[in-house]
Amino acid sequence: TTTMGGKSYVISLFDTAGQEEYIHLRALSYVNSDVFLLCFSVAMPESLRDAQDKWIAEIRHYSPNTPIILVGTQIDLRDEPPPPPPPQKPRSGSRRESYKTTKAPVFISTKEGAYVATKLNLDSYVECSSVTEAGITRLREAAIESGLRKVDPDDNGCHCACSVV
């Protein structure tokens, strides 16, 4: 239960399986959702590409009028120092040591996440961390605000679900 503006709201989250063989099960959860939280890790740029290339189209296919919030997760990882490079052994037959360069982690910035949300005409962009709980309250509030704005002529006033993709 989350309180906002003096009112209490119950938020039910449904995490759906991403594998292709579960498309029919996911589609069932899409129908009654009031808001979609489309999550990706800011520490894994490929997860944002998946959100753009796969998940947006699928959600809009099954639930075209439902708000989508793009959620950047694992923001706590931005503050961690990069791991040290592994120790290198000298090359065989060479006096010089071989030094491999370790790539620094690439993170999706807040600005990049917001840009993608705007470009794809999503409801909003929110970042959070389950480790530090940073942004969790804002995410709950954004989900409630988006769910309350959803207008469905067949809606009986019951706002039932928030799907996490």
UniProtKB/TrEMBL annotation:
Question: Under the GO molecular function aspect, what terms does this record hold?
Answer: GTP binding; GTPase activity
InterPro entries listed in its UniProt record: P-loop_NTPase, Small_GTP-bd, Small_GTPase, Small_GTPase_Rho
Q: What is this protein called?
A: Uncharacterized protein
Q: Give a yes or no for keyword Nucleotide-binding in this entry.
A: yes
Q: Which Pfam families match?
A: Ras
Give positions of region: Disordered.
74-101
Listed under GO biological process in this entry are: small GTPase-mediated signal transduction
Recorded hits in PANTHER family, A to Z, give: RHO FAMILY GTPASE
- Has keyword Signal? no
- Which of UniProt's keywords are assigned here? GTP-binding, Nucleotide-binding
